[in-house]
Amino acid sequence: MKRFVVGEARDQSTLFPTLLDDFIAEDNPVRALEAFVEGLDLKDMGFKGVDPHATGRPAYHPAVLLKLYIYGYLNRIQSSRRLERETQRNVELMWLTERLTPDFKTIADFRKDNGDAIRRVCREFILLCRRLELFSQAIVAIDGSKFKAVNNRNRNFTATKMKRRLEQIEESFNRYLS
User: Fold this and answer.
1) In Å, what is the CA distance from 12 to each residue of 19, 43, 63, 89, 177?
2) What letter would DSSP give residue 137?
3) Within the chain, how many helices (H) and strands (E) appear?
4) What interhelical angle do 29-38 and 62-74 show, nearest 10?
5) What is the b/e burial string over 98-114, where b = at least 16 CB atoms within 10 angstroms of the residue's CB?
6) Using the 8-state DSSP alphabet, how is residue 52 labeled?
7) What is the extent of the structural domain holding 62?
8) Sign of the torsion formed by the C-alpha atoms of 39, 58, 74 and 138
9) Rounded to the nearest 10 degrees, how much is the dihedral formed by the CA atoms of 38, 41, 45, 46?
10) Could you give the number of structural domains in the chain?
11) Domain assignment of residue 164, yes or no
12) Alpha-carbon distance 104 to 87, whole Å?
């Protein structure tokens, strides 16, 4: 196969970095996410499962699932099934979760059971970003609500149409008074 870029043989051993930490650059945003979540007192924030049960199968620590949830939010990965898949192939998530791969049901249950606490964490994250002046002066909020739009001629008003309509109302009012 001359004149083409050729890949390496799959059965060839390579000298990848032995540490997962070597794959993540020092300025990678997942390091900031790690520091933020580790600095939180999850028990005070209202997360369930911070204190493990004495019996039964060991659970994932809420900090791991919170990191996974925030990472998914920042990278537009909303599906718990996609988050599960990303933990198995995304190097950043492998680093962030210390190679833990919770299943989609665990991720979905975490979201369901800790909704209020997650909202408090998001509020705390926004306050931190404001303190660090990471937001510009213009803040735009986007709502995902969908409404049925009706934009026919009778319901579409421009400044000229409004002026004309006000004149019609004034004429009608004068006719009524006379």
Assistant:
1) 20, 48, 38, 20, 95
2) S
3) 8, 0
4) 140
5) eeebbeeebbbbbeeeb
6) P
7) 20-131
8) negative
9) 100
10) 1
11) no
12) 11
In a domain? residue 63? yes
Q: pLDDT by residue (tens digit) across 55-97? A: 888 889 999 999 999 999 889 998 999 999 999 999 999 999 9
The mean per-residue pLDDT over the stretch 103-107 comes to 94
Q: Could you identify the residue written with the tokens 């996609």?
A: 82
Whole-angstrom distance, CA of residue 37 vs CA of residue 120: 12
pLDDT tens sequence across 111-121 = 999 989 998 99
CA 38 to chain centre: 18
Decide: 33 and 70 in contact? Cβ < 8 Å.
Answer: yes
- Global pTM? 0.69
Separation between Cα atoms, residue 160 and residue 49, nearest integer Å: 61
Q: Please, what is the Cα angle at 134 between 125 and 42, to 5 degrees?
A: 15
State the amino acid at position 44 in one-letter form: D
The tokens 């994932």 sit on which residue?
60
DSSP calls for 87-110: HHH-HHHHHHTTT----HHHHHHH
Q: Tokens in use for 90?
A: 């995304």
Q: Quote the CA–CA distance of 128 and 134 in Å, as a whole number.
A: 9
Calculate the average pLDDT of the chain: 85
Calculate ∠ Cα 107-52-57, nearest 5°: 70
